[in-house]
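Changelog-adjacent note: as of this version, every example in the card shows the full chain rather than a window. The one below runs 236 residues end to end.
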Amino acid sequence: MASNLDIVFPLYPGVSYLDFMGPQAVFGLLPGARQIFASVGGQPIREGSLTLSPLARLEDVQRCDVLCVPGGPITHAVEDRVFMDALRRLASTARFVTSVCTGSLILGAAGLLENRRAACHWSAREQLSLFGAIPDAARVVRDGHVLTGGGVTAGIDFALTLVAELAGPVAAQSIQLLLEYAPAPPFNAGRPELASEEVLGRLPTVAAALGFDMAKEEAVVQRLGADYRRGSNPAA
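Full-length structure tokens:
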């Protein structure tokens, strides 16, 4: 591994903190890694009562070794031309292009997943095909230099997998041990095929309480997917 490794997290309004907080905890223990958290114009990014500031100006970040795009409601990101242009530019410099959760939809909308297998949150996974990607239900998926993680908690698995690529499995396992990453969830309801009908029926209400309109997000992705297939993606 090179002595210096720049890892860029492009952040946007609506981004889910958990999608990048897990990975940044892992990468923060990787010797030589420098993490850069950036937004368009360096604008503060909020989730609930928490605000991240100061942030680097995404437009000013020249290159990276790892580009990591977190998920969440993605409308603000995919409809921001400055954000998407910066994403494509940084991806062209990166050794690894990566994402967590619905961040892979942003990569897809940027034209970075054509004919590649990719993971995503289960609720949006099949929408990857709108952008020429191949949806994969695995928790962490690697296809060439593209490494994607599934929904939210898969971010730590993804980060450990990437550290193993960058610094070897012993380094990755040492970080896992230090973080005591030994998940044992109290319920077995983390995937729709495992959850009860009652839990599935409550999901839209829980999502709405978080400000996440699942139907609206799907409509935006469907529209962008149609534009993408016509070759007239407005974010391109």
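Structural remarks: The mean pLDDT is 94.
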